[in-house]
C-alpha cells in the first residue's frame, strides 16, 4: 500500500526522533557541560560544578563529551534521511509547501512542523557537540532541550497517528497503533545511545549510566510488547480487520512477526540488557542496538504490509460485509 520510502521514513523518522528525545533529556540533566572551560574551573574551585539547583548533587549521568559527539550526529543523520525519504516519496516540492503553509492546522501540518523543529534542534546540539569551547548558558541549553523533547514526542506520535487516521485501513484505526510506534521509537532511540556508547572512549567508568539505560530500555521493550499484543488482539476482535491480524499472527507475515519483531526486536535485546549490557561490554552494546533497530524496522514493514490483507483492500470481501 505504501512504498519502501514511506516505510523507511516511518523507521528513520521515528528512531531519529526517539534518539532526539533521549538525548535532549540527557542534555537538560547535564547542561553544565556546555559551560566554558574557564567557567567550569571556577565552578569546580567554588565546589559548585556537578551540583544542581540549591547546591544538591546533580543526578546527571556525566557522560563524556565524545559520547555526545557520536550520538548527536546519529540522531541528526536518521532524522535528515527520514525527511529525505518522505520528500522523495511525495515527489512534488509544491505539495510540501502547501502542507507547511496550510491555513487549517491538521495532523499532517503539525507533524511537518515537528519534523522541521526536531531537525533544527538536532543540528544545534550536533554542532555544539562537535565544536567544543562555547560557553552556553544552562538556561538556554535546557530551553532548547525542552523544545527538542516536545518536538520529538510529537514527531514519533505523528508517525503512528498518520496511519491511524487513514480511513481506508480498518486494522490501523486504533490508538494502540500510535502507542506501539511511540514505544518502539523510544526503544530505537535508546539503541542509538547504545551504539554511540560502544564507540565512546572514556577514562571514567560508563557501567553505571549504561546499566541505567539498559533498565530504561527494558521497560520500553516490555511496554511495547504489551501494546503490540493488544494491537493484534484488537485486530482479531473485529471482523473487518481479522484477516490483517491473522496475516501477522499465523499468516504470510508470521515469520517476520514472530522471528523479526518478537524474537530479534524484543526478546533478544531484553535478554541481553538483563545479562550483559549493564557490564558495559562494547560488542554487547552494538549487538543490542542492532537487534532493537532491526526489530523497529520490521515492525513498521509488517504493520504497513498487513494493510494489504485488510478487508477494505479486498473489494469482494468488503462488499460482502456491507451487504451483511
Task: Explain the layout of strands and helices.
Layout: H1 4-29, H2 37-45, H3 65-90, H4 93-100, H5 107-130, H6 138-164, H7 176-198, H8 207-237, H9 242-249, H10 254-275, H11 282-306, H12 315-323
Helix pairs in contact: 1-3, 1-6, 1-7, 1-11, 3-5, 3-7, 5-6, 6-7, 7-8, 7-11, 8-9, 8-10, 10-11
Subcellular location: Cell membrane
Transmembrane segments: 6-29, 71-92, 112-131, 143-164, 176-200, 212-235, 255-273, 285-309
Protein name: Polysulfide reductase NrfD
Q: Segments where pLDDT lies below 50 for 5+ residues?
A: 41-58, 315-324
Mean pLDDT comes to 82
Q: What letter string, H or E per element, gives the SSE order? A: HHHHHHHHHHHH
Q: Indicate the radius of gyration in whole angstroms.
A: 21 Å
Beta percentage is under 5%
State the share of residues found in helices, binned by percent: over 70%
**Gross morphology:** globular
Give the beta-strand count.
Answer: 0
Amino acid at each position: 500500500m505504501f512504498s519502501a520510502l514511506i516505510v523507511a521514513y516511518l523507521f528513520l523518522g521515528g528512531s531519529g526522533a526517539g534518539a532526539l528525545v533521549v538525548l535532549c533529556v540527557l542534555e537538560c540533566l547535564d547542561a553544565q557541560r556546555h559551560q566554558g572551560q574557564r567557567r567550569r574551573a571556577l565552578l569546580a574551585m567554588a565546589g559548585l560544578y556537578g551540583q544542581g539547583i540549591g547546591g544538591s548533587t546533580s543526578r546527571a549521568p556525566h557522560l563524556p563529551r565524545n559520547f555526545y559527539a557520536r550520538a548527536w550526529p546519529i540522531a541528526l543523520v536518521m532524522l535528515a534521511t527520514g525527511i529525505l525519504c518522505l520528500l522523495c516519496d511525495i515527489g512534488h516540492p509544491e505539495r510540501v509547501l502547501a502542507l507547511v503553509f496550510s491555513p487549517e492546522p491538521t495532523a499532517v501540518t503539525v507533524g511537518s512542523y515537528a519534523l522541521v523543529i526536531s531537525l533544527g534542534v538536532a543540528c544545534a546540539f550536533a554542532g555544539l557537540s562537535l565544536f567544543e569551547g562555547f560557553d552556553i548558558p544552562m538556561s538556554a541549553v535546557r530551553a532548547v532541550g525542552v523544545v527538542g523533547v516536545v518536538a520529538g514526542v510529537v514527531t514519533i506520535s505523528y508517525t503512528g497517528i498518520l496511519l491511524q487516521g487513514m480511513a481506508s485501513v480498518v486494522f490501523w484505526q486504533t490508538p494502540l497503533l500510535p502507542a506501539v510506534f511511540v514505544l518502539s521509537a523510544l526503544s530505537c532511540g535508546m539503541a542509538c545511545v547504545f551504539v554511540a556508547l560502544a564507540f565512546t572512549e572514556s577514562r571514567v567508568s560508563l557501567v553505571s549510566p549504561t546499566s541505567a539505560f539498559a533498565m530504561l530500555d527494558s521497560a520500553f521493550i516490555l511496554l511495547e510488547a504489551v501494546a503490540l499484543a493488544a494491537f493484534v488482539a484488537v485486530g482479531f476482535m473485529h471482523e473487518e480487520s481479522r484477516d490483517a491480524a491473522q496475516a501477522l499472527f499465523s499468516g504470510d507475515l508470521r515469520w517476520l512477526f514472530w522471528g523479526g519483531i518478537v524474537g530479534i526486536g524484543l526478546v533478544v535485546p531484553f535478554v541481553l540488557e538483563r545479562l550483559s549490557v549493564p557490564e558495559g561490554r562494547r560488542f554487547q552494546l552494538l549487538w543490542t542496538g542492532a537487534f532493537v533497530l532491526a526489530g523497529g524496522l520490521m515492525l513498521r514493514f509488517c504493520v504497513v504490509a498487513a494493510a494489504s490483507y485488510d478487508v477494505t483492500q479486498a473489494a469482494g470481501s468488503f462488499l460482502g460485509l456491507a451487504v451483511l
